[in-house]
Amino acid sequence: MDKALTLPEILACIGNRLDNNNIISCMQVCKSWRSEFEPLLWRSFTFGQLAPKEPRPELPLLQKNALHIRQLVIEHMDPTFQSFFMQCKQLDEVRFDVQEVDKGDDEDQIWGRFSDMIDNHGRLRKIVIDSVPWPITNKVLETMERCSKLIVLETKDVELDVAKTQLYLKLCSKNLKRLSTYTDYYDHPEFPNDLVFQEMRYLDICHATGISMDKQLTWLSRCPNLISFRWEAWVGLVDVAKLSTILSNGACPNLTALHLIVALTDEEIAQILEAAPRIEKLSLPRTGFGARSIAALRRHFPTLRDINLQFCSKVTSPMVQEILRSCANLQSISAEALNRSDIIQQPWACKGLQMFDVGIDVVEENGDYELLMTHYRDVYQRLGQLKELDYLSICSGNQMDMYSRNPIKVSLEAGLDELAPLTKLTFFSCKTLLDSSEDGEGFEAVEWMVEHWKKLETFEASGLVTAMVPGGDEDDILEPSVMDLLKDHGIKFTEFISSPRGLYDEDADFYEGDGWTDQEDNDDYGYDMDDFETYEHFGPIDFSSDDEYADQYTQYMHFAMMGLE
């Protein structure tokens, strides 16, 4: 065993499963372990603006570890560090997020340095241009086109004039397999007849301007191998007939994932679902999904894997129950409400469900407390059968109004202990439900979660959680003892904000999980694409620096400067 723990391949396998804090601990074991584990600290690196609390490493240290960096976030294109950028030869991903120009510098120079950098990295698979406040240059677009292994591109707030639009579309028609264009501006582009996006598998067109919705559908029709289409727009009428024709005439025969955050009526949704050959993933939040839509969806029940019907006012509890009891392959469901009376009608077919995000209502009958507790336990017993659950949320934003809704109670007396079989759970949300807990009940519930859900990473609730300490009263807030309990077990507390989340609120504290995404392994590239196509409550993928990373980095710098032996 001792010899095995000196083998680089064994240590690499271990290190890939550790966070930075644990890696730092391993570095202190011995010299050989430090040499093996130290490079893992540099897998992701953010080159930011100078800040007093986050000292930037010296150039020699950066140059020494440049080859270890796989993901790089650039927030400051410092010319004195250009040699470091050029030496990051093993980069898979780079995010360009520069917001300020140094004195004596200009925008073209910054874009030029970034262009020179990516032109020098033959391994690049993913590039993100994130709301840079200056117009992108032709040189950058031409350079990205020369990145022969680039398969993922995400752009946000990029302004494209006529010439740049043509360069951008040409770039996208090369080897790109995934494209996310978010709030980008196009200057009324035309699509030449020979322009085809042959390799495109995942296409996200979100709030694009300067390009009509009709042209956006033309773009869709030019992606013959597309698997997933995400379409978001604030305004504009959807040509449902054209979209239905694209789906039915074989233009995109492999398109099985539709995420339509656009204005659609119940009748229009039904027309789209009737035209689609096969649906596996479907997101229709804030749409008119109703009786006609569910009727059209039934023929897709055998293949349906993920469905998101958040904020759809016409979606009823019986509809949600029908999906759960009919879709054996379902892995993820999001909806507003499900009544206990519907839940108990028939068992659920989706034994492999991994994500459940539905507000549960339990109606109180004649003030019978014991009967109410029995009804709560009925619901928890049904949820406890979903042993593959990774994400569980049992309250919707609309259940904030306790007078019009009857959300399920979260307490051991109500049956929370029936969820003990959910050993794979990493995220649990009861949003504000602990606000109504009796003295000590909320604290006991959290203690139980910590004890039984060993893989729990995130707990979401209201910050004004009463009775979170034994003997607490209504004026209590979340006490340090509870925070310490969560922190001691490595569980993150996320405060639920009383507003519809996940669709348009970029400042919300989203759950950043690995699941619920379309993924594709590309053996030709040796690169596993973790798709942008996350569900709305998760928000965009972000590997930028945060406080936790800063703390870990400070610890690392301490050991690096100490010259650990």
Automatic annotation (TrEMBL):
One of its GO terms (cellular component) is SCF ubiquitin ligase complex. Pfam families: F-box-like (PF12937). This is F-box domain-containing protein. GO terms for biological process: SCF-dependent proteasomal ubiquitin-dependent protein catabolic process. It comes from Linnemannia gamsii. It comes from the Eukaryota. SUPFAM superfamilies: F-box domain, RNI-like. Residues 8-47 form the F-box domain. InterPro entries: F-box-like_dom_sf, F-box_dom, LRR_dom_sf.
